[in-house]
Amino acid sequence: GVNKMSKSLGNYIGINEPASEIFGKTMSISDDLMWRYIELLSFNIGTAELKNLRADAAAGQLNPRDLKIRLAHEIAERFAGKEAADGAVEAWHKRVQEGVVPADIEIVEITIPEGGIRITQLLKQSGLTASTGEAMRKIGENGVRIDGEVVSDKDLCFTQPAEFVLQLGKRHFRRVKLS
Fold it and tell me: Is the pTM of this model over 0.90?
């Protein structure tokens, strides 16, 4: 079965969220679930067109991602306005397809304790991971970057003041200021 949209499952899309969040969350739904979202949420794609789109996707003539972009834009536009939705599409393309770091990254200031701070603790304190164990797993999966460079050393320790972009996966960023 397919999980319904719910806050407790963490797969809901809030109508008061910024266009970039609405767009990103819609883009992250599965291709199978996308068809149900279109049926229920799209005002622009009718039943006949949906049938044709399903056939095109099944025949390999339509990439589901392209249809998901269309749906995500429509939903973001409905709740956040056309300008914000257009900006969300552009920012998504830059971030996902071109690897550009977003401009509006949350800034986290952390005081370096005596003896330094390990990368795993930094990931936890910055809010990118829930635990140091999760941080270690993400480093092991090559999912952590500092200023675009993959971090492979789980014991990396910072002892000097510094400022850099800390990235987890493709979508999660923090600008870290160590002092």
Answer: no
